[in-house]
C-alpha cells in the first residue's frame, strides 16, 4: 500500500463515518520514514543442505516482496513510524532501512490447546462449521526466528539507493538489532485443513485433526505477520529513540502544542535542514542553533517532556537540547536533516504536521 493509497484509505474511512487509525500521532510516533527491504530466508544453524532446508519456508511465505509489503502495512497500521514504505515506492526517500531475515523453516508440530479445544468441541457439537474459526492448536516448538535490523538508509550512508549493500554499514550504526522467535503461534481448523479434512470433520472434532502440512505452513506464515504486528511495535517504541541518539548522535521530536521541533544531539549541532513536502526548504545554521539551545529550567522541561515520548533517551551530560519553531507553511510531511560538527552519518527524520497546524 503506497503513501497515497493510505491517505485515500483514511479519507474514505472518515467520509464514511467509520473508525480507524489516524494518520499519525505526531508526539508519540517515531519520526522516521522507514523502508522495509525484501525479506531474506536463511537456513537454521547446522543444516547440511541449506537450500533444501529453506524450501518449506519459501513455499509457505511465498513472494518475499509481498511479505515485505505486508510487514510494512502492519507497522504503518500500528503507527510506530511516521511512514513505512517498501522498494515499490522508490520515489519516497527513507530515513531508515529495516531488514528482516527469516532464519529456519520448521514451525514444529502442533499441540492441542486445552481451552481452545474444549471451546471448539462445544461449538462443533452445537454449531458445526463455526468451530473451524476457533484457535485450538498451538506450535510451541518452532525454530523459525525473525531477525530485525534497522539502520540509517543506504542513501544516508552514501550508498547508491536502497540496493546498496547492507554489509557496507558498520554494526555500530545499527539502531535496532534483535530477534523475534515465531513461537506459540495458534491455528484453527480452517487454516490447516484441505477439502478432504472437511468431510472427516463431520465425525471428528476439529482439535483432533492436525491438518495438511503445506496448508498449515502457509497459514502459519500469514499468522507470523500478525505475530510481528503485535510483538514488535512496543519493542521499537521503547528502543529506537535512544539507540538512534547513540548511533547517529541526534534525535528529533515534534511538539504539536507549540509547533516546534525538539532536537536532541550528543554535542553541539551544526546545521538543521527542513524540507517541507510543498514549499521552500529552510536551513537553520549554527548561529541560530546556538540561540535555540536550552539551558537550566528550559532544558529540564524538555527532558521531562521527552520522558513520556522517548523514555530511552536518558539525560546524558553530553546531550544538547534545542527548540526550533516551525514556520506557517512548513506542514504536511517534513523531512528533517541534522548535522553535527564531528561529521558521521547525518540524522534524517520525517514528521507529519497536520495542515491546519500552521493556520492562525
Amount of beta strand: 25-35%
Low-confidence parts, pLDDT < 50 over ≥5 residues?
7-24, 159-167
What separation lies between the terminal Cα atoms? 34 Å
Q: What is the CA-atom radius of gyration, in angstroms?
A: 24 Å
Taken together, the total number of domains comes to 2
**N-to-C SSE series?**
HEEHHHEEEHEEEEHHHHEEEEHHEEE
Overall form? elongated
Major beta-sheet overview? 6 strands, mixed
Secondary structure: elements and pairs:
Blueprint: H1 3-16, E1 30-36, E2 40-42, H2 50-53, H3 55-61, H4 64-77, E3 81-86, E4 96-103, E5 111-112, H5 114-127, E6 135-139, E7 145-152, E8 176-181, E9 185-188, H6 189-192, H7 195-200, H8 213-237, H9 240-248, E10 250-255, E11 260-266, E12 271-276, E13 282-284, H10 286-292, H11 296-307, E14 319-325, E15 332-339, E16 347-353
Parallel strand pairs: 1-3, 1-4, 2-4
Antiparallel strand pairs: 4-7, 5-6, 6-9, 7-8, 10-11, 11-14, 12-13, 12-15, 15-16
Amino acid at each position: 500500500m503506497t503513501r497515497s493509497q493510505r491517505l485515500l484509505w483514511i479519507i474514505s474511512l472518515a467520509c464514511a463515518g467509520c473508525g480507524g487509525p489516524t494518520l499519525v500521532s505526531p508526539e508519540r510516533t517515531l519520526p522516521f520514514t522507514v523502508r522495509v527491504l525484501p525479506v531474506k530466508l536463511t537456513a537454521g544453524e547446522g543444516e547440511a543442505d541449506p537450500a533444501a532446508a529453506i524450501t518449506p519456508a519459501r513455499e509457505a511465505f511465498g513472494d518475499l516482496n509481498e511479505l515485505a509489503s505486508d510487514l510494512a502495512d502492519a507497522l504503518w497500521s500500528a503507527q510506530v513510524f511516521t511512514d513505512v514504505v517498501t522498494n515499490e515506492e522508490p520515489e519516497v526517500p527513507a530515513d531508515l532501512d529495516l531488514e528482516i531475515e527469516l532464519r529456519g523453516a520448521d514451525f514444529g508440530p502442533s499441540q492441542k490447546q486445552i481451552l481452545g479445544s474444549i471451546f471448539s468441541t462445544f461449538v462443533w457439537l452445537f454449531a458445526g462449521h463455526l468451530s473451524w474459526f476457533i484457535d485450538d492448536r498451538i506450535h510451541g516448538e518452532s525454530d523459525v526466528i525473525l531477525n530485525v535490523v534497522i539502520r540509517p538508509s543506504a542513501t544516508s550512508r552514501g550508498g547508491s539507493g536502497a540496493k546498496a549493500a547492507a554489509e557496507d554499514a558498520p554494526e555500530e550504526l545499527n539502531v535496532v538489532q534483535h530477534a523475534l522467535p515465531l513461537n506459540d503461534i495458534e491455528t484453527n481448523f480452517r487454516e490447516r485443513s484441505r477439502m478432504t479434512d472437511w468431510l472427516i470433520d463431520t465425525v471428528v472434532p476439529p482439535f483432533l485433526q492436525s491438518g495438511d502440512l503445506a496448508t498449515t505452513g502457509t497459514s502459519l506464515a500469514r499468522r507470523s505477520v500478525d505475530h510481528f504486528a503485535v510483538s514488535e511495535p512496543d519493542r521499537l517504541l521503547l528502543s529506537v529513540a535512544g539507540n538512534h541518539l547513540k548511533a547517529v548522535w541526534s534525535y528529533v521530536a515534534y511538539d504539536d502544542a507549540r509547533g516546534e521541533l525538539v532536537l536532541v544531539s550528543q554535542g553541539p549541532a551544526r546545521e538543521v535542514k527542513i524540507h517541507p513536502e510543498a514549499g521552500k526548504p529552510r536551513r537553520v545554521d549554527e548561529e541560530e542553533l546556538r540561540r535555540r539551545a536550552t539551558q537550566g529550567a528550559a532544558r529540564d522541561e524538555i527532558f521531562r517532556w521527552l520522558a513520556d515520548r522517548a523514555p530511552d533517551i536518558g539525560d546524558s551530560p553530553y546531550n544538547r537540547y534545542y527548540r526550533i519553531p516551525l514556520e506557517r507553511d512548513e506542514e504536511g510531511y517534513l523531512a528533517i536533516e541534522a548535522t553535527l560538527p564531528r561529521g558521521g552519518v547525518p540524522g534524517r527524520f520525517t514528521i507529519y504536521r497536520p495542515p491546519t497546524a500552521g493556520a492562525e
